[in-house]
Design a protein that fits this description.
Elements (H helix, E strand, L loop, with lengths): L2 E4 L2 E7 L11 E13 L8 E8 L11 E4 L2 E2 L1 E4 L5 E4 L3 E6 L4 E6 L9 E3 L4 E7 L5 E8 L6 E4 L6 E2 L2 E2 L1 E10 L1 E6 L1 E5 L34
Length: 223
Amino acid sequence: MPIFTTAPTAIHVTNQFGPDLVPTPSYTLNLHSVIATAQGAPGLIGQEIDLTLFVNGGFDDGTVFSHLAIGGQEILADSDGGPDRIVVSPPETSAFDPVTGLTTFSYTGIFAGFGPRLSLLPEFLLQFAIDMPIPTLNGYRYCTAGEAYCEFSNTLGLTEINGQAVTVQSSFLDYPEGTLSNAVMTFSTVDGRAVAPVPLPAGGALLPGALTGLAMLRKRQRG
C-alpha cells in the first residue's frame, strides 16, 4: 500500500491556550510542503501537500478546523482517536456487490494507488510520523497577591510585570509549542507499511492538576 514522504520543511506547532490564557495539551500542527518520495502511488510525487491538524488534548474552543489537501484536492474526512492517524477520503468511484454487501472503491487520479479497496465506506485511515519530536516550551503564570492581576510568560524568575509585583502562581512545563526546521513527515495507510507514531511531549512534566494527560480525543471536521 502507498507510503509517501514530504520534502524537508518547517512544521509549526501552535498551542491552543485555554480561557484562562494558559497553555493546554491541545495544539494545531501546520505543514506546507511537496511530496518528495512515494511508493505505490507515484502520481503523488511533486504534489503540494497542505496539512492543518488539530490535536485535541482535552480542550477545544471550536475555532480550529483540520484539513489535508494534496495536489489542491481536499481529502481529510476526520481526525482520528490516535495521536498519529487521520481519516481520509480521496476522490473515488465505486461498484457495489449485492451478494457481499460491500463496495469496491477505486480512487481517481494521483490517488489511484490507494485502491481498489473493498469496504463499507470509502474513507480509510492514514497514519503519519514526524522525524523529530514535537517542540515544547516552559511557561509560568504570574499573579499579584490575591490574584487580582495575572499574566502568562515564558520567562522564569519575573518579580514585576507592568509595574505589578508578581510571583509564580503555577507552572506549565513542556507544553506543545514551537517550530520544527527541516522536518520530514511520512504517511502510510494503516493496513500497509507501518511507521512510528509521532513523538509527543511527556505528560508527566506538566503541572499536576493544571493539565490532564495528553489524551487524543476524536475531533470531527466541521464545515
